[in-house]
Amino acid sequence: QVQLVESGGGLVQAGGSLRLSCAASGRTFISYAMGWFRQAPGKEREFVAAISRSGDSTYYADSVKGRFTISRDNAKSTVYLQMNSLKPEDTAVYYCAARLFGSAQAMSKMTPSGMDIWGKGTLVTVSS
């Protein structure tokens, strides 16, 4: 069973950038489609981005398209989320998620309950 640990969150001014990382334990990382979700205070958890097992397909929520980039390094069992041009409305806890033998396209359309594994999250705060 893969375990996920996020890092890289913090406080940043609007317009700034952050890079989140999600390190996976175990030797089956390549079997998982990976994604990022976020949950703002008082709101439901929402999809942000997903990447296929090979890394050749990516999907994004409309709210982050053109600003965020998801990538993965299967040799390091790590998935990344590069966040540029951050806005105060991007403030949330960001969670890494994995779906065994899933597809990135399917992950982009699924509710959070469809994910197999979750990390504990990392807080991103964007000040205005």
The sequence of SSEs as H and E is: EEEEEEEEEHEE
Number of helices: 1
Uncertain runs with pLDDT below 50, 5 residues or more? none
Radius of gyration: 13 Å
Helix content: under 10%
Structural class: mainly beta
* Assembly category: single chain
Tell me the distance between the termini.
40 Å
Large-scale geometry: globular
Strand fraction equals over 45%
Summarize the main sheet.
Answer: 7 strands, mixed
Please provide the count of β strands: 11
Return the average pLDDT rounded to an integer: 96
Layout of strands and helices, then pairs:
Blueprint: E1 4-7, E2 10-13, E3 18-24, E4 32-39, E5 46-51, E6 58-60, E7 68-73, E8 78-83, E9 92-100, H1 104-109, E10 117-118, E11 122-127
Parallel strand pairs: 2-11
Antiparallel strand pairs: 1-3, 3-8, 4-5, 4-9, 5-6, 7-8, 9-10, 9-11
Tags for this model:
single chain, 128 residues, mainly beta, 4-stranded antiparallel sheet, 5% helix, 48% strand, globular
Brief sketch in words of this structure:
The chain is mainly beta and 128 residues long. The chain has one helix spanning 104-109; strands at residues 4-7, 10-13, 18-24, 32-39, 46-51, 58-60, 68-73, 78-83, 92-100, 117-118, 122-127.
Describe the structure.
This protein is mainly beta and 128 residues long. 5% of the residues lie in helices and 48% in strands. It has one helix and eleven strands, in the order βββββββββαββ. It has one helix at residues 104-109, and strands at residues 4-7, 10-13, 18-24, 32-39, 46-51, 58-60, 68-73, 78-83, 92-100, 117-118, 122-127. Strands 2, 4, 5, 6, 9, 10 and 11 form a seven-stranded mixed β-sheet that branches. β7 (68-73) and β8 (78-83) form a beta hairpin. The protein is globular. 35% of the residues are buried.
